Amino acid sequence: MIDPTTQDNWIREWLDRREYEKQASDEHAALAYRFGLQSEFEHPNRTFDEVEPALRTKWHDRYGADGPDWDDVSGSARAGYERMHTFRTRA
Predict the structure, then answer these.
(1) What is the 3-state secondary structure of 28-83?
(2) How many CB atoms lie within 10 A of CB 11?
(3) In this structure, what is the dihedral angle of CA atoms 44, 1, 86, 6, given to the nearest 10 degrees?
(4) What is the pLDDT of residues 1-21, one digit of tens each?
(5) Which residues contact residue 43 at a Cβ distance below 8 angstroms, ignoring those fewer than 6 apart?
(6) Residue 90: partners with Cβ closer than 8 Å, 6 or more residues away
(7) What count of Cα atoms within 13 Å lies in the side-chain half-sphere of residue 40?
(8) Sequence spans of domains, the chain
(9) What is the pLDDT of residues 30-39, one digit of tens each?
């Protein structure tokens, strides 16, 4: 994994430039982005689209009906997942 400071920097960059999912608060988008970063580490060599159903289930199990809705934050989770994948495969 990467260090927490780098993760925080990536999240800030994402929040500054995200063009969609404005219905998700910054807090929820950051949570989903970090979830995506961590999830890629658990699913190396698989695309987000391949694991999205499992991630949706895991998100719901973790945050329940009272947490952020997956459909509102999945783009942020995808962005984190893909950022980690790019970082890991270029290292």
Answers:
(1) HHHHHHHHHHHHHHHCCCCCHHHHHHHHHHHHHHHHCCCCCCHHHHHHHHHHHHHH
(2) 22
(3) 160
(4) 677 888 888 888 888 877 665
(5) 50, 51, 54
(6) none
(7) 23
(8) 26-90
(9) 999 999 999 9
